[in-house]
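Lecture notes, unit on protein representations.

Consider one protein chain, 94 amino acids long.
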Amino acid sequence: MKTALVGDKSIPEFDKDIMTNLLITTVEEKLVRQEQMLIAVLNAKQEIYRVIGAADRKQFTNAVEELEDLELSNELKEIDRVKNGYDAIFGLSS
């Protein structure tokens, strides 16, 4: 899996846990966006601050499980379609 920060957005405290728990490589954002499946991560302002790219369904599923273990919620969980190019969008539970 690959990841990149998006723009100059605020980085939440839980980001260090994401980087520790997921086996991901930090690369340029354009390289992440070339992956088959994309996950967006939101900060407290509901801005996408990190994008994670998975090469296949297995990597995607593993990343989703890890993010759920960190008590982040997927706003697309009940929707069976992509939103704004993302297969999942995770943030703090409301």
